[in-house]
Amino acid sequence: MTVLLHIDASARKERSISRALGETFKHQWLSSKPADKFIYRDIGSTPPDFISESWIAAVFTPEGKRTDEQNLLLALSDVLIEELTEADVIAISTPMYNYGMPASLKAWIDQVVRVNKTFTFDLNRGDFPLEPTLSGKSLVLLTSCGEFGFGENGTREDMNHLGPHIQTVSKYLGVDEVYEISVEYQEFGDNRHKRSIESAYESIPGMIKSIATNT
Ligand SMILES: Cc1cc2nc3c(=O)[nH]c(=O)nc-3n(C[C@H](O)[C@H](O)[C@H](O)COP(=O)(O)O)c2cc1C
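Above: the input record for the complex with flavin mononucleotide. Below: its predicted structure, written as tokens.
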């Protein structure tokens, strides 16, 4: 049995392309692996709190010395980290907002990438003192954007701060492999958009096969 954690980040409940992709991925994954455990977080509808000065102070207070108030401040982070730790596959369905990720998704990442939980920090390691504590996970990134050309060698590749940002930080989510499917052209609503959607849905079964062989 593997564990699938699905994170939905679109602020839209209706007509969301990334949510629809995520739903199809989940459905096909669970159909091919019915015994799998499924954990779901709708952070688009219920965004996690932004981290704060007190949150950071609580994180840097040794566990046994935290006040009740500090433990309460970290309670959501603790639960989100438990969910992440359990997961073998993390599926994040998300829109591109302002060339990057939605604030809700950044808030989730800030809550789960936490010192002495998901990574350790040691200056004895030299110029790269951070090391993830988790490993072996696969990340499935299902994205939608209004413009186009954000892929490799595309006309807007250098404007894409969504996929590359998530890929960089995914190391500290314990991710070894990233799979990405993107829909583009939503704002144009033309045949290119239609083709982009078709090609995204066509890619899902092959991607599931590749992940299943590697997990
Ligand atoms: C607040 C906001 C910001 C957006 N910023 C961008 C952007 O920077 N680049 C882009 O290509 N599309 C942008 N879009 C278009 C969305 O990425 C597109 O509508 C996408 O389909 C939204 O995902 P969803 O359908 O899952 O809700 C933006 C849309 C919104 C609502």
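Notes for the reader.
The beta strands are 3-8, 37-42, 89-95, 119-121, 130-132, 137-144, 175-183.
Residues 10, 12, 16-19, 95-99, 144-147, 186 surround flavin mononucleotide (CB under 6 Å).
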